[in-house]
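A quick word before the example. In earlier lectures we treated sequence and structure as two separate objects. From today on, think of them as two lines of the same record. Here is GTPase Era written that way.
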Amino acid sequence: MTTRAGFAALIGEPNAGKSTLTNRMVGAKVSIVTHKVQTTRARIRGVAIEGDAQIVFVDTPGLFAPRRRLDRAMVAAAWGGAADADVVVLLVEAHRGLTPGVEEILARLEEVAGDRPVALAINKIDRVKAEALLGLSKTLNDRFDFARTFMISAEKGHGVEDLRRWLAGMMPEGPWLYPEDQIADLPLRMLAAEITREKATLRLHQELPYQLTVESENWEERKDGAARVDQVIYVAREGHKGIVLGHRGETIKAISQAAREELEDFLGRKIHLFVQVKVRERWMDEAERYAQMGLDFSGGG
Ligand SMILES: Nc1nc2c(ncn2[C@@H]2O[C@H](COP(=O)(O)OP(=O)(O)OP(=O)(O)O)[C@@H](O)[C@H]2O)c(=O)[nH]1
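And the structure line, produced from the sequence above:
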């Protein structure tokens, strides 16, 4: 069987319905969390499976109205995410139409999308009359050469299947990017890995900033509502292991404690976090592989 896999970037103004749509396409579990994650830093919203295709929805955090410096960096990352994707979906709210915010996106869409196909999804069609929809579709299609236009209601589910099927067909042929049993909590794993990486970087005072990666290898839901998370901090050399461990393991203890606290705070639930250190000399290759997928775990910027 030929499999397909790739990345789809969802862009749109705040409130356009990106989370609700992801929810619909991916399954209920991740959405609650990814919605929160979306406002911060994770780059994957969720993974959908449609027939033999795997569609990875890439996040575009804080795409609009940058206020602080950090936000500007996030905006750049957001557009970067769109540029790395195989296909871009622009979500526009049916009842709001061509707002200044949508104008702003359209102005940069060509530059960002390059030769990648861009689909238009007019969302919240349950809020307007059919006549209004046709007018809006025409207005928007006059402004940009969309590969397809979908009329959807992410909330009610109308048109979502069509969109997902189309996206699946747009994915390049290739092996699936994530094992099926991991996709439900992938955004959680990534978030947890990013937090630990950040704590390690802070703690190590730039000693090994570009030379460690963090992976959440196991995420286990417990009956009592807590989760057990097993992570590995990978370093490039044997000698680096001691630096991360610290005297009598004090450094890694401090790192995992800080990471656990932030993760618990963020998710509002109890987390049992176990962090190990391992050597992986070829991690640079891995970092490159992730970069090709539009991800950046290396922190090397
Ligand atoms: N009536 C209607 N409401 C919708 C539809 N899709 C989303 N909404 C609502 O629109 C609001 C925003 O939806 P979200 O999915 O959170 O939007 P978002 O684009 O992820 O928002 P940000 O994360 O702030 O960028 C929520 O109250 C949704 O319930 C739809 O098809 N119809």
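Notice the following. Residues 12, 14-20, 38, 123-124, 126-127, 153-156 surround guanosine-5'-triphosphate (CB under 6 Å). We will return to this example when we discuss secondary structure assignment.
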